[in-house]
Amino acid sequence: MDRLEIRELECFLALAEELHFGRAAERLHVSQGRVSQLLRALERRIGATLVERTSRRVRLTPLGQRFVTGLRPAYDVLAGTVEDARSAARGVEGTLRIGFQGSVHDEITSAIALFQQRHPGCTTEVIEIPLADPFSALRGHEVDLAMLVHPVAEPDLVAGPVFSRSQQTLAVPAGHPLAGRGALSAEDLAECTLIGLAGPAPEYWRRATAPETTPGGLDVARGPRVCTLQEGLTLVAAGRGAMLLCQPTSAYHHRSTIRYVPVTGLPDSVLGPVWHRGHETARVRAFAQALAETAP
């Protein structure tokens, strides 16, 4: 068997995810010509075409699809083994980039403090990621781990232990008919226009944050779509609609023009750490452990 070339495999996996030679080149920090060269070398080694490229699109051949399905788990194991060896050699050092959406809860800052106390050789960076685009920063290696609202049903991502559960609240304008209520049922959402999320978030995730029907089957009017929490709260204050938020986020973002009313009959808002399956490091595992120990 010909000798395996890791760079060829890395190139193919990047191209399989991006389906774009330019983006794959940027991700690998090489030229587009180099991506084409590595792909051709791998296809010669395999003996068949793995990627079809036309002037309008890039797609995997049926063999390419089967190859990436079998290759990805093996590559992730190999990459994880190498990273484990590096981490064992130097300890938990370097930089851990933690993504968050909207606000950083006090419990998360407590976990960061515990992590820093235990691993003074590792610094932490906290990076805000768009509310409407929860996964791209992980896939683009902009963050090592992100604190995200569940559900997370992405095969290339790992959802760590649930960190917190909290009741959902409805953010409504101060003058809205529901603003004076002490609590709402899920069926009351039919009396609102719900602000949803734009961007590349998968549909199941958008529906979880802004359901289109109540549990009883009543339609919920769809309002404007936003990319960030601040955009959503601004539209709520302006009377453009209502927005579902977890209780800690509601408490953090107090505004005189907005009322936050608890909602019963909806699943709790669940928050937990998420990381890329192929980039689990000792830093990520150590921070997940700190989260577990500081969880309410």
TrEMBL record:
It holds the Pfam family HTH_1. InterPro entries: LysR_HTH_N, LysR_subst-bd, WH-like_DNA-bd_sf, WH_DNA-bd_sf. Residues 4-61 form the HTH lysR-type domain. SUPFAM superfamilies: Periplasmic binding protein-like II, Winged helix' DNA-binding domain. PROSITE patterns: HTH_LYSR. The keyword NADP does not apply. Keywords: DNA-binding, Transcription, Transcription regulation. Belongs to the LysR transcriptional regulatory family. This is LysR family transcriptional regulator. The lineage of its organism: Bacteria, Bacillati, Actinomycetota, Actinomycetes, Pseudonocardiales.
